[in-house]
Structure formats: C-alpha cells, structure tokens
Amino acid sequence: MANVEILFLLLTLKLMSLQYITEAAEHVVGGDSAWIIPINNPSLYSSFAASTTFRVNDTLVFNFRTGAHNVATLSQKHYESCNVTELTESFNTSPAKITLNRTGDFYFVCAFPSHCSLGQKLSIHVTAGGSSSLTPSEAPLPSPHSGAPTLLAVTVPVLVMAVATNLLFHSY
Ligand SMILES: [Cu+2]
Questions:
Q1: In what order do the strands lie in the sheet with 59-62?
Q2: Would you state the CATH architecture of domain 25-146?
Q3: In terms of CB atoms within 10 Å, which end of the chain has fewer, N or C?
Q4: Cα–Cα distance for residue pair 16/35, rounded to 1 Å
Q5: Cα(132) to centroid of ligand 1, in Å?
Q6: CA angle 48, 68, 27 (to 5 degrees)
Q7: What are the backbone angles phi and psi of residue 8, rounded to the nearest 5°?
Q8: Of residues 123 and 169, which shows the higher confidence score?
Q9: Could you tell me the pTM of the whole model?
C-alpha cells in the first residue's frame, strides 16, 4: 500500500515541478559573456534575444563589474539613437535582476559613455506567460538558460525522499 502512495506522491510532485517551471525563468543576459561591450562579438545581445523566449514574470539577470557598467531602461527612440540622457530607470549594482512585468518590448542599454553605441544594448520582446492554460504534460521543456529547473532538480528529489521516508516510517 505504501508503494502505491509513494508512486502517487512522486507523480504529484513531478507535475507540480513542471507547473512551477513554466511559471517563470531567469535569463542570464549574454550567458557567460555577461553584460559587457561586445567588442569581439557585436551580435552577442541580438543573438541572445533571438534565441531566447521571454515570458511575463521571467527575470533578466545582468552580470557586470559594478562601477564599470550599469543597466538602464529607456524608450525605443532613445534606444535606437543611444541617447542615454533620457533614462526611465537605471540599475548600478551587479547583478541587476529585472522582472519582465508586462508583455511587449523592453529596451536596455549601458549608460556609460559610448558603451551603447559600441553595442552594449539589448532589446527583447516579452510574450504572455500562458502557464495557466497549459497542462503539465503540454508544458514546454525548460529553457537551458533558466536557473529555476536546476534548483528544482535538487530540491524535488530531496523533498520526495523526505516524504517517502516519512510514509515508510508510519506504515511500519
Ligand atoms: Cu557599459
């Protein structure tokens, strides 16, 4: 009897974890290259944006040397022309974590002189979350850029072990 309970429990936890993964992901901007002037790879941030799916409630993580760069949001017009005198918001301490709280386009630059025009800029398009309409079996695979699944991979088995141990203890 205990085996059936454990199996059911495992299945429930598995489904819960899948549901959780679809809710929000963390995207490390530029991956290992982080947030820099992309001298050796001018398309670093446009490629990153093109290869990543951004959904509402996902988080962008900008890693940079505090004091050497920053992250600022601004309008599309000012983004295109790298006009860093008209900023909406700026983040000066690394890591800058920015939650994508709406759908649509987001524009980021480094506001240090000439960094934007040298390519330290990122524009992304955010789409609706959609997790509530998906059943876990239909959920997309977690993004390789996401931090959440890594954490879950550790926490879920530990949780399962704890509950399973508890069940076994009570059934004997
Ligand atoms: Cu910079």
A1: 26-28, 59-62, 96-99
A2: Sandwich (2.60)
A3: C
A4: 33
A5: 38
A6: 25
A7: -60, -40
A8: 123
A9: 0.65
